[in-house]
Amino acid sequence: MSVSPHTCGDAPTRRGFLQGAGAAVLGAGLVACTTPPKAAPTANPVATDLRLAALAARLELALVDAYTTIVAAAEPGGRLAPAPAAFLALARTAAAQHADHAALWNATLAANHVSEEKSGEAALVAQAHQQLGTAQSVADVAAAALRLEQTSVQTYVAMAIRFADHHARRRAMQIGPVEAQHAAVLGFLLGAEPVPDAVVGSGAALHLPAVRG
């Protein structure tokens, strides 16, 4: 016994339906007429990497903005002056390094014909302005900078494993420790041991872009 073929969407006749039922009972081979399931969208690793690179650039630009504000407040003539020379040296060095990191990520975007990022991540900029604006001492400023650096470090920890491109992943793994060093020095100036944390989590990381095509 065989089943007469029919096109998908056509209602089978009663006879055809019964033949099909009989064939199933008797174990005859049936040709199923079903609509193939749609394939799930495949994530585009290049697009995801570029979104991560853009976030990293905005992260770095937010830190540049924060340290620019810090230097203005702590240098001679600033509202929190005089600040220790070591703190001012750290703030200026950190600002320059964050600017270099932003330039690296923007170069990646430009090489892939994606617009470069020009301003910092809005949530982090707002956090920095709020904390720095209410700071009443150099110690308050240093504590705010420490929190920003810790956010940066944890964002890189979360981000590194999301990169598909090994060059981008390596860059994230190289930049993260530099920012951990900033955090360690800030912590030292605030009285903590001058060593980076042995274990770094990602609970304070910025929200990462979704993986999608």
Task: Record keyword descriptors for this entry.
single chain; 213 residues; mainly alpha; Ferritin; 2 domains; globular; disordered N terminus
Question: What does the model show?
Answer:
There is one protein chain. The protein is mainly α. The protein has two domains: 1-38, no CATH class; 45-189, Ferritin (Up-down Bundle). Helix content is 61%, strand content 0%. It contains six helices and no strands. The longest helix is centred in the first third of the chain and has 30 residues, at 45-74. The chain is globular and about 50 Å long. The two termini are 48 Å apart. The model is unreliable at 1-36 (pLDDT under 50).
The SS-based structural class is mainly alpha
Distance between the termini: 48 Å
Task: Count structural domains.
Answer: 2
Report the total helices.
Answer: 6
Q: Estimate the global geometry from the Cα principal axes.
A: globular
CATH homologous superfamily of the largest domain - what is it? Ferritin, core subunit, four-helix bundle
Largest sheet, in brief, is: none
Task: Tell me the total number of β-strands.
Answer: 0
Present the secondary structure layout.
Blueprint: H1 14-26, H2 45-74, H3 85-111, H4 122-133, H5 138-160, H6 166-189
Concise account of the structure shown:
The protein is built from 6 helices and no strands.
